[in-house]
From TrEMBL:
Domain of life the protein comes from: Eukaryota
Highest classification ranks of the organism: Eukaryota, Metazoa, Ecdysozoa, Arthropoda, Hexapoda
Annotated InterPro entries: CRAL-TRIO_dom (IPR001251), CRAL-TRIO_dom_sf (IPR036865), CRAL/TRIO_N_dom (IPR011074), CRAL/TRIO_N_dom_sf (IPR036273)
GO cellular component term of the entry, any: membrane
PANTHER family tied to this protein: ALPHA-TOCOPHEROL TRANSFER PROTEIN-RELATED (PTHR10174), CRAL-TRIO DOMAIN-CONTAINING PROTEIN-RELATED (PTHR10174:SF216)
SMART domains assigned to the protein according to its UniProt record, in alphabetical order: CRAL_TRIO_N, SEC14
A Pfam family hit: CRAL_TRIO
An example molecular function term from Gene Ontology annotations: phosphatidylinositol bisphosphate binding
Name the UniProt record assigns to this protein: CRAL-TRIO domain-containing protein
Amino acid sequence: MDIRPLSPELLEVAKRDLNEDPDRRKEDLNYIKEWLSKQPHLRPRTDPQWLLTFLRGCKFSLERTKEKLDNYYTFKSALPELFRDRDPMRPELQEIIKLGFLIPLPEPDDQGRVVILGRQVSEDPDKIKLTEMFKYNLMLTDYLMSHDDRALVYGTVSIMDHSKSTLGHMKHFSPSLMKKLATVFQDGYPIRPKALHHVNMPSSFMTIFNLFRTFMKEKINKRTHLHENVDSLCQQVPRRILPKEYGGDAGPISDLIEDWRKKLEAHRGWYLEDEKYGCDEKKRPGKPKTHEDLFGLEGSFRQLNVD
């Protein structure tokens, strides 16, 4: 069975925190693969490493793993604007990559977690389509699932620098798009977000931020932190792992962008092949799931604070 071995340290954490049992792993994988073979509506990847990612993200609960796999492939077909045309060589994506919108940092934090630095890369709200930025976000997450076992075992930490966010960026956000993104990440991906840090957020952007939080589960909201500046951020994220521009030791952002670009482009074949996977609702046993079933907004809003 073609599976990357975990380091002794990672394996101990996986046993303790994810209920991973090396002696039962093959049996669990075979069970999930057999279940997938009986789902006429799904066109899934079935390689052991990919399925193991979902098992780990669901703490080896077989029922939760089945639900998340079904959701993942259902969302892929329901949201072509986010899951199609994911060739990293496509000019629109190349621009986002080279601007450094999202970059996994080279070193983990003090708890071993993968840290992802995000930045609003242009003060011009019309320079890059929001759907392309979110598409790229999902591409990055798929890459981590495929290559970085730390992201599943220790979890991830996200940092978003809003220094260039303006009132003009708000016009591209909508409750519908926010609900879709929140639903996909929370219900479709097995990634384990441990903290979300927002820094340098202008007061004009708080409306969108509060809107997005209405779609997030309570556990994620409790792990979300706002920081007025980088000094505040560094009380929770070690400065040493940050780029030079943030006072850290990870080197200049330009070098980090170039290293990450090469990795993403090397993964190009995976993204191109991934186009064939998804879901056919016409073949789903029982009642097909509609767009409203998946992403309906009714009952989603709580009181917004738009100060």
